[in-house]
Every structure is written in structure tokens, then in C-alpha cells.
Amino acid sequence: MKICILSLSIIIVVASCVPPGKLTEAIEANNAISKKYDSIQIKLTDTIANFRSSLNELKTNLNSLQDSVSYYRAIASMPPVISEGDVFLNQMLGLSLLSKSELAGIKTTNGNNGGNNVWLDGFKADMKKYTAADADVRLNKGYVFVDISDKILFNSSSYTLTKKSKQVLATIASLLQAQPDLTFMIEGHTDNKAFKKRAVNDNWSLSVNRATAVARILQTKYKINPKRIIAAGRSQYVPVDDNKTKAGRLNNRRIRIVIMPTVTQVMNLNQ
After folding, report:
1. Which of 14, 147, 183, 210 has the highest count of CB atoms within 10 angstroms of its CB?
2. Do 135 and 57 lie in a common domain?
3. What is the average pLDDT score of the chain?
4. How is the beta sheet containing 229-233 ordered, strand by strand?
5. Which contiguous run of DSSP H or E holds residue 201?
């Protein structure tokens, strides 16, 4: 108790020794310092917040950059794209059907012509005069398939070519004449309706006779080398549509010409 009273007495004595003006100045100076401290503290807090925001943005950009680097590294490590033609040639090389020098020559030729298929493009353009139901040209695994409806080639139940057939066969012959290295197969196809008429015993006979009729006119009228021609009857066993409907049976009755390009042309077709 005595100590507390003594301390209070000392404070009162000291305060009474300081002039009132000096004490006010000291208090104001202290307040000013406090305000500056508070202002600096606020600025420091804002600066830290901005720094953290910039740091987070930098981390986001860095992650994005790392993702981009990973993406392009993955692309760089991917094997080169190989066309169907390249696969075909490599298989032939593996089976010793082509030498390395022959393979290199084919690829050089293919590179020089830029993979252009002028012969096929022109043929497709010529065939556009027919509807898809009458004549259809498709490319599949290096082969060109030309399906021609029997209604523009033959009369019903007949294997004698009609006058209407001359135009489409002339178009096909023009292609074959311009590409003397092409080998092709002519296939006769029928529907599943039983057929017997004179010398034609069944659909096998009808399909063979129709295929050979087309082969014969290509040889005799259009002077196509018969060594290039293969004729075959497929009867009713390779349908492209449902034989239960009239439209389906009509689609199944057709001549299919399968054009087999040379190895170099196969490369071009798959570009």
C-alpha cells in the first residue's frame, strides 16, 4: 500500500514539473505517429494482398504453361500418321512382294504427283449424270466399286444388253481405256427369286451370263484387252439390300465392276 501511494506521488510530481504546452505537444506528436503507423499498416496490408494476388496469378499462368508444354511434348512424341497406302506398301514389303528400292520408287512417284487422282475424279464427275440408285461409285480399301442397276443394263429376266446400257458402259470403257494398267472384275448379282428360262437354269447362270455380256462388249466394242477382265457370277448370295421388299430386290439386281488399281495408284487413292 505504501509503495502504490509513493508511485502515485512521483507521477503527480513529474507531471506537475512539465509545462502544460509541452505535454499537449507530446500528446499530439504521439497521435500523429499513431496515425502514420496505422496508414503504413493499411498500405502494408494492401501491398501484401496485391502481392499474394499476383503470386496466385503467376502460379495459374505457370500451370497453364506447364500444361501447354506437356501437350506439345505429347504431340512431339506421337508416331507419324501413316496412310492406308503406306500400311499396304509396308505389308507388301514385309511379305517380300516389294523390294526396298521398288518401295522408294513408288513413294517418290507418289510425292511427285502430289497424290492426285485425276482419273478417278474425272470418272466420278462423269458418273454423276446417273442417280445413286442407277449407278454408284465408291472407294473402299484401295478398290473402286462401281454398282450399276440391272434396269439400265438389261431387260427383265434377260442377259441381253439394252440400248440404254451403251451410255454408262461407254463411260466406264473410257476410264478403262485411259488407264491400261487397271485390272477389273465384273460381277453379276441377282435377287433371291427363283429363275429359269430357256438356257438359263437358275440365278447362278443368270448372274454369270450378265457378267460375261458386259465383259464381251467391253472387249469387242471398246477394245479392252481381255487379259485385264475377270467375269464372275455371284448369284443371289451377296445382297446389298433386303430381298423381302421390291425396292430391296431391285437394288440387289446389279452389275458390280471392281477396279483394282496398281500399287502406286493405291497410294494415291488413300491420300
Report:
1. 210
2. no
3. 76
4. 135-140, 143-149, 254-260, 183-189, 229-233
5. none
